[in-house]
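Saturday, quiet lab. Running sequence design on the structure tokens for the scaffold JK sent over.
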């Protein structure tokens, strides 16, 4: 996976990244875990697979856990020192 992001930072497009990963013998996700991917043939990396990996919030550092909305109302808008509820 690190190789995928390194290639992207080097300016490679998704098609070229897929080719490099295949040439280097890196198993695609469906080949790596065939039990979870029975509906896929695992033949190699595709452009869609590379793009999905590059856009995945878990791998890009944008995933947020336990994100909840929070609304606070000031007890007295003219005296913010009183806090909110």
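Result came back. Writing it out in full:
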């Amino acid at each position: 996976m690190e190789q995928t992001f390194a290639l992207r930072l080097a300016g490679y497009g998704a098609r070229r990244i897929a080719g490099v990963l295949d040439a280097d013998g890196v198993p695609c996700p469906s080949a790596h875990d065939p039990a979870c991917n029975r509906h896929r043939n695992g033949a190699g990396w595709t452009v869609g697979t590379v793009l999905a990996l590059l856009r995945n919030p878990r791998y890009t550092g944008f995933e947020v856990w336990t994100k909840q909305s929070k609304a606070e109302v000031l007890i007295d808008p003219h005296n913010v020192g009183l806090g909110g509820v």
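Notes for JK: Residues 1-85 form one domain. The helical segments are 2-9, 14-23, 29-32, 47-55, 57-60. Ask whether to fix the surface positions before the next round.
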